[in-house]
């Protein structure tokens, strides 16, 4: 089983948890969510993590399309040329629609990541979309894609079985769940999907959310007031 090191940076307009996973034996790294905003230097902190560990960044995985999770996309493009960027298929429209990605609300200005053309495939939008049940082979391990709609229509959680870890964006929190009052949100859909898909994972699975502290699947099944 690969030994994967986890670093957390709190970046962007509301200090989003941005995770850097590194397999130093394989010299590979993956970032989950890259926050930032126009003119910020938040991406430099992520680059420093990568350089100090002497690893190569394979991919940046976005859990959903709200600006506090995708705002560092342009910085990622500049700091890590050619790196693979990934988002859930149903949240792709958020990249190019400010009213969906909430940038006017979060930083008081609309931000658009235009869809890339054939002539500029490494500019603007993401390179790849993933669907529920898809498995990515990164870091020398498997990363399972679990779509949990409700916070956004296509929120994507990333589950690493060998690491016993779930990175779930704003889906499930310690003692709470994500908001469902933003565009495309649905509260009942969110609760149902958490119970059906996330609570089916092993109880010892550690849950790393987009904000607040880590928790576990077992703990939330027993104590989360939204369930039971």
Q: Can you tell me about this structure?
A:
With 228 residues, the protein is an alpha/beta fold. 22% of the residues lie in helices and 29% in strands. It is built from seven helices and 14 strands. The protein has helices at residues 42-53, 67-70, 73-79, 98-101, 103-107, 187-198, 217-223; strands at residues 5-11, 16-23, 28-32, 56-61, 84-88, 128-130, 135-138, 141-147, 156-160, 165-169, 172-173, 176-177, 206-209, 215-216. It has a six-stranded mixed sheet, with helices on one face. A six-stranded mixed sheet has the order 7-8-9-10-13-14. β9 (156-160) and β10 form a beta hairpin. The protein is globular and about 45 Å long. The mean pLDDT is 94.
Major beta-sheet overview? 6 strands, mixed
Q: How many beta-strand runs?
A: 14
Low-confidence stretches: none
> Which outline best applies?
globular
Radius of gyration: 16 Å
Helix fraction bin? 10-25%
Strand content is: 25-35%
Oligomer: single chain
Helix-strand pattern: EEEHEHHEHHEEEEEEEHEEH
Distance N to C terminus: 34 Å
Helix/strand-derived category reads alpha/beta
Output the strand order for the largest sheet.
Answer: 1-2-3-4-5-6
Mean of all residue-level pLDDT scores: 94
The number of helical elements comes to 7
């Amino acid at each position: 089983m690969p030994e994967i090191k986890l670093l957390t940076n709190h970046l962007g307009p509301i200090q989003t948890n941005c995770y850097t996973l590194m397999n130093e034996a394989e010299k590979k790294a993956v970032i989950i969510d890259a926050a930032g905003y126009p003119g910020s230097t938040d991406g430099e902190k992520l680059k420093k993590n990568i350089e100090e560990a002497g690893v190569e960044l394979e991919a940046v995985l976005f859990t959903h399309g709200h600006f506090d999770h995708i705002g560092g996309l342009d910085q990622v493009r500049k700091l890590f040329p050619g790196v693979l960027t990934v988002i859930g298929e149903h949240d792709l429209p958020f990249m190019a629609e400010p009213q969906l990605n909430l940038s006017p609300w979060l930083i008081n200005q609309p931000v658009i990541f235009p869809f890339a053309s054939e002539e500029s495939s490494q500019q603007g939008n993401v390179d790849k979309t993933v669907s529920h049940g898809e498995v990515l082979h990164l870091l020398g391990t498997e990363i399972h894609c679990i779509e949990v709609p409700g916070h956004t229509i296509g929120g994507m959680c990333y589950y690493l079985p060998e690491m016993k870890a779930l990175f779930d964006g704003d889906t499930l929190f310690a003692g709470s769940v994500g908001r469902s009052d933003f565009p495309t949100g649905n509260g009942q859909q969110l609760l149902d999907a958490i119970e059906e898909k996330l609570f089916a994972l092993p109880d010892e699975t550690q849950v790393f959310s987009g904000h607040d502290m880590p928790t576990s699947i077992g703990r939330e099944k027993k104590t989360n007031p939204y369930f039971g």
